[in-house]
Amino acid sequence: MHTYIDTHAHLYSSKFSADRNEMVARAIHAGVSKMYLPNIDAESIEAMLDLEASFPDNCFAMMGLHPCSVQPDTYQQELALVEKYLGERSWAGIGETGIDLYWDKSTLEIQKLAFSRQIEWAKDLQRPIIIHSRESNRECIDLVRSGQDGRLRGIFHCFSGTLEEAREMIDLGFMLGIGGTLTYPKSELPAVLREIPLEHIVLETDAPYLPPVPYRGKRNESAYIPVIATMLSEVKVLPLSQIAKTTTANAESMFVLKSA
User: Coil, strand or helix: which one is 61?
Assistant: First the structure.
């Protein structure tokens, strides 16, 4: 069996309350040996840490503030809490953070502030940063470029963009997180990924969201990573074994602690 890593999954979500342990067991049985858990905000931390404690060899928590939780009245307190937790232990990564212009454009300026703060933390702690860039690739690329001093690395989660944007992200030292949207009939990702070397790609689910075909309309879970990998093998015209080996190695190198 091939071994995979899910670099982005909200497995602590209440959508898994009825069968969380079984869901993780299904993922492990499917060859998904590690699952990285991006934080959302103050309300998600406890459930995330509980899951990590239950599966310490398989689930790895990250700390950050999601752009959709950046609100005028609370974002400073939320960032202070993130900073507090970052000082208390080691985390697999910083995030998820970034900019979301799909749901609310009115908070763009404070989203930029929150993202920039987390960029600095990622550099100081030498951890990868997990970037949410929904309808904001240009804004996120520009902020990453302005903050890149050789210490910054990470993943553009749920990549959706042009070949030119993908190349900019890679040139900045980032990998592309590819998930279930690759399998969607109208997806433009296959054409872009044919031009991108596999060494710049990691796999993710964003569970419970964005399930791949044939699970659309249902809850996503980490056990579906091999479905995404199979589609990527078809797009890249490469053996599934190579997809598994290379994307797993990419993820392993991304989450290794780098010295400053």
Answer: strand
